[in-house]
Amino acid sequence: MSSVRSAPAKDPFPAREDALRLQAGLHDDPFSALGPHMVGRRRIVAVFLPGAATLEALVEGKAHPLTRRADAPDLFTGAVPGKGGYRLRATDGTGQAWEFDDPYRFGPVIGEMDEYLLGEGTHRRIWQVLGAHVRSHEGVAGTHFAVWAPNARRVSVVGPFNAWDGRRAPMRRRGTTGVWEIFLPGIGEGACYKYEILGADGTVQPLKADPVGFGAEHPPKTASVVRDIAGYGWRDDAWMTYRAGNNARTAPISVYEVHLGSWRRKADEGNRPLSYKEAAEELVDYAADMGFTHLEFLPLSEHPFDGSWGYQPVGLFAPTVRHGPPHEFRDLVDAAHRKGLGVILDWVPAHFPSDPHGLERFDGTALYEHADPREGFHHDWNTLIYNYGRTEVANFLYSNALYWLEEYHIDGLRVDAVASMLYRDYSRKAGEWVPNVHGGRENLEAIAMLQRMNEVAYGEVPGVMTVAEESTSFPGVSRPVDMGGLGFGYKWNMGWMNDTLDYIAREPVHRKFHHHQLTFGLLYAFSENFILPISHDEVVHGKGSMLAKMPGSDWEKFANLRAYYGFMWGHPGKKLLFMGQEFAQRAEWDRAAELDWGVLGAEWHSGMQRLVRDLNTLYRATPALHVKDCEADGFRWIEANAAEISVYAWLRQGQEGDPPVAIVCNLTPVERSGVRLGLPQAGRWREVMNTDAAIYGGGNRGNLGGVVAEEVAHQGLPASAELTLPPLSVLYLMPGED
């Protein structure tokens, strides 16, 4: 049924003032002046249609001419009989005719409960109401548009379908919610659109992309694109059933971090990156073969600048179209799940760019950001900071987190730059920041938003994980919110990463003076649920590749790196490597080129790749190496103080009955024989990992597959064995026969 509104019995309708405001694009209540209205006993229809020569309403096949208004030449009005629906038929100056439905004859779409929650700023699933939704309304197919712009005088949907003319589709204001909506019949999947917003001061803003848009044009174009994200046929039931166990603190978690635009490229097709569907085969198969448990993608939400790697997003609800449309991104996630891989997305609530089509001064005011640059501008990245204290903005962010988890079956969110959110004085000098209400430096509003995000994520989607990239000693990052923490599942261990990389980059002759850079991390290793991250940040901006960081000759570089990975996989904490590090890419990461896969033709590189695969396999298969990654009783030092010879040894222990693993590191280029190592039991101990093995490119030195421990107490343990430690190597020993 059409929505017929009553109007005062006056002539003409709409009033001259309304007609002039419509013509000028200044009307803030277009539904009061357009569409069907009862004027006295007659139904008058008013239609604003620039470019039309004639216009008539069609009711049950009969045409009823509408007359052009003299005071507003693009406005047509006339009496249309009946109370039901009608269509419109127009002609242009050439006589070309077209038919369409009048958007102003349709009633509202947003219901009372949604309106209440939006107005309150507590709608957990704003994407189900805001954005562009392909749907049928009152029996007609089209798209419903809704956007939050509380300080606007007028908001219009514009696109090629209405010549980007903001006068043609002004929206309906929904009470005091700040939300505007309109149903546009005939608009469907693939339509480009933006919002034209008339600010409170009467200034037309730059055309804005939809903050809750599900798709976007390929950059450098900037329009949003209508995408129907309903109805995907997921085939990952088995994964979803057991996901909670795969993300648990006791699970083996080894993450392969990927920048999808540069993992592989199609050189014979203009050097383009892989599509989501191609990655669903090539990348998923590779990561599964390498033994990783999770894929982690640098941000895949829409972003205007390739060089930001996705960390300056504009379309938080849109998977970037660089690799395909939304359903094809779902194909990638679905394929990963069916191969037993979890999917983690980088999520960026810390800042957003000032591109004119984005969120900056969205409705002519500092809406999403702070007005004061001391609170609302990041000098490090030349970006804007969300106003976390505004209820609707916090709602926008935590609802976006839930969106990825629910709509795309994402298994985890890694939250970027958390430290920059926690502190008001982050990277600021005195006088450049505003204290909180208590006079302190903590950003209480950001803290509350992060806590709320974690509560919603874990409360609404059981089995997921959230991960904080947090570079300070802020307490309780991975402690539950109800215990005073931020509520994250895991935290990147940035201190461990910095200390260990600094150590391993030193010439071995100097390492004895820095011995405790490798032991210091155990003083706090169980204060949080840690992930050990060797991420993209360590191989860019002149830092060189992982291989390039290593000292010495080529042989020593590879041996050092193999030993470092052996140390890392034996250390408490979940694991993360950035792509290319698993085969010791020589060059620093270049986001515009694919990884240097050609080096795998060389033995040392293929050996490194085999080592990482075997480390992952051993880590996953050996409970002692993962079930107590986050528990202090899963670790015991055997030797922590042999600084003169740069030797370290420790035990990893699982649950009762799990065989322990002894890990021994020799981080000098000198083979050491007759080194006595304390062990928890006598008998045969197998050498289950030797980073100096020939299959990894090493010298094949060691203990001929194992040692026999005697009942000779040593280093506080009841048994011990003599070992040969190859140069620059790590050994893993487990009790039992071969």
TrEMBL record:
GO MF terms, alphabetically ordered? 1,4-alpha-glucan branching enzyme activity
Residue ranges occupied by any Glycosyl hydrolase family 13 catalytic domain in the UniProt entry: 257-636
| Subunit description | Monomer.
Q: Which UniProt keywords apply?
A: Carbohydrate metabolism, Glycogen biosynthesis, Glycogen metabolism, Glycosyltransferase, Transferase
SUPFAM superfamilies, sorted: (Trans)glycosidases, E set domains, Glycosyl hydrolase domain
Q: Tell me the pathway.
A: Glycan biosynthesis; glycogen biosynthesis
- InterPro entries this protein is in? A-amylase/branching_C, Branching_enzy, GH, GH13_cat_dom, GlgB, GlgB_N, GlgB_N_E_set_prok, Glyco_hydro_13_N
Q: What does the UniProt record say this protein does?
A: Catalyzes the formation of the alpha-1,6-glucosidic linkages in glycogen by scission of a 1,4-alpha-linked oligosaccharide from growing alpha-1,4-glucan chains and the subsequent attachment of the oligosaccharide to the alpha-1,6 position.
- Which family does the similarity line name? Belongs to the glycosyl hydrolase 13 family. GlgB subfamily.
Q: What class of enzyme is it?
A: transferase
Q: Which reaction does it catalyse?
A: Transfers a segment of a (1->4)-alpha-D-glucan chain to a primary hydroxy group in a similar glucan chain
Is Transferase found in the keyword set?
Answer: yes
**Coding gene?**
glgB
Please give the name of this protein: 1,4-alpha-glucan branching enzyme GlgB
